[in-house]
Amino acid sequence: MPYYVITYDVSEQRVNKVRKILKKYFVWVQNSVFEGEISLGKLEKCKQELLQVIDQREDSIYIYKVHRLTDLDKQVIGVEKEFTDNFL
Amino acid sequence: MPYYVITYDVSEQRVNKVRKILKKYFVWVQNSVFEGEISLGKLEKCKQELLQVIDQREDSIYIYKVHRLTDLDKQVIGVEKEFTDNFL
User: Fold this and answer.
1) Closest by alpha carbon to A8, among A41, A43, A56?
2) Which residues partner with A7 through β-bridges?
3) Under a CB-based contact definition with an 8 Å cutoff, are residues B34 and B6 in contact?
4) Residue A82 pLDDT class (50, 70, 90 cuts)
5) How many CB atoms lie within 10 A of CB B38?
6) Strands B60-66 vs A3-9: parallel, antiparallel or unpaired
7) Structurally, how many domains does chain B consist of?
8) Is residue B9 part of a domain?
9) pTM summary value
10) Which domain covers residue A10, as residue numbers?
11) Of the candidates A58, A65, A77, which has its C-beta nearest B54's C-beta?
């Protein structure tokens, strides 16, 4: 299953809505970054939900995909953050 | 050459210093994201410089690496941002 890193730069008024959607599909790993392994079908569903809440002229979401988690190496400098439910 | 996506969550007092370092090695593609292709040697140099300016107990930098750019697929929802020099 493909592995995804999602990054975003979204206006303050809409960022919580975007996070709530992303939290259903991915893990929140840094202030503007989510990660996770999901099927293509679920990714499409997630994208449709995101399109309903963002302003495409202002907001920016990048979906990075690798075919397998093993294709991606991750190094951490400083704190490795992970946000739990009580942040939303 | 490996391809990198760098994401960061750094305190306001230090974020400009981090961006100035990253801009020497990568392209600034989203508010908290840089991308680029560099040698292992240059990556180590970049990491050493970052370690001099961040507070490792508070700040967080993730370095995602794929072996080749072709291993990484990128989809954009909304705006594809790229920051030029006048932002620093």
Assistant:
1) A56
2) A33, A62
3) yes
4) confident
5) 17
6) unpaired
7) 1
8) yes
9) 0.93
10) 3-69
11) A77
Pick from B71, B79, B82 the residue to mutate for testing the A interface (most A CBs within 10 Å): B79
**Cα(A81)–Cα(B9) distance, rounded to whole angstroms?**
9
Shortest Cα distance from B14 to chain A (angstroms)?
13
How confident is the prediction for chain A on average, in pLDDT? 93
Which residues of A touch chain B, with CB atoms under 8 Å apart? Answer: 5, 7-9, 29-33, 47, 50-51, 54-67, 71-81
Please, what is the end-to-end C-alpha distance for chain B in angstroms? Answer: 28
Q: What is the pLDDT of residues B30-84, one digit of tens each?
A: 999 999 999 999 999 999 999 999 999 999 999 999 998 999 999 999 999 877 6
Is residue B43 included in any domain, yes or no?
yes
Chain B residues near residue A7 by CB distance under 8 angstroms: 5, 7, 30, 32-33
What tokens does A16 get?
């919580």
Q: Note whether A18 and B45 are within 8 A (CB).
A: no
Instruction: Return d(Cα A51, Cα A53) in angstroms, integer.
Output: 6
- The single-letter DSSP state of residue B12 is H
Evaluate whether residue B21 is within a structural domain.
yes
Token pair, residue A10, equals 């979204």
The CATH number of the domain where B27 resides is what? 3.30.70.240
Would B13 be classed as within a structural domain? yes
- Reported confidence tier of residue B86, pLDDT bands at 50, 70, 90: low
